[in-house]
Amino acid sequence: MAAASPMASQLKSTFTRTLVAPKGLSASSPLHLLPSRRQFSFTVKAIQAEKPTYQVIQPINGDPFIGSLETPVTSSPLIAWYLSNLPAYRTAVSPLLRGIEVGLAHGYLLVGPFVKTGPLRDTPYAGAAGSLAAGGLVVILSICLTMYGIASFNEGDPSTAPSLTLTGRKKEPDQLQTADGWAKFSGGFFFGGISGVIWAYFLLYVLDLPYYIK
Q1: pLDDT of 17 higher than 50
Q2: b vs e for 130-162, b when ≥16 Cβ sit within 10 Å of the residue's Cβ?
């Protein structure tokens, strides 16, 4: 047989040196070749915190089936006051007046972008062209509102708005969510939008006030 390689002899000597009998056992004992095994055990316990954590985001009114969440933004008194004063949420105001208010804001603000970014912005006709374009957009939006009302509401049906608040208090259903109410809102939006465009053109180009951007 060929002589064992130096690597094999080294491994053999290392292996034999590790099999040393523990103290107190004779060399003939069958336990001297068994390695010692230690068993470790630990226990996991769930400890409740001393102070309960405050949930910043939670279901509205504690009811997860409503499908809405209370956050520091949506449930703050300032945000609730601001949203309740928007025309869409002022249910005590007639839909016609709410449409006029929304139309006035849109028509008045649409003139500027069309005047400054329209294709005739570098000509003497920029004001007239931008005002006509803004009026045309108001007409298109009014037609879209009318189409939505025809497709969503049936004539004579009651309001689809809820008659209860989230806290359970009874309230009058919003008449905007009816065919007649939506028709009034669309008409008010058209009238208010055209009035806003005319008012913006009057201030900019009829009174000819020295505005910084004109």
Answers
A1: no
A2: bbbbbbebbeebbeebbeebeeebeeeeebeee
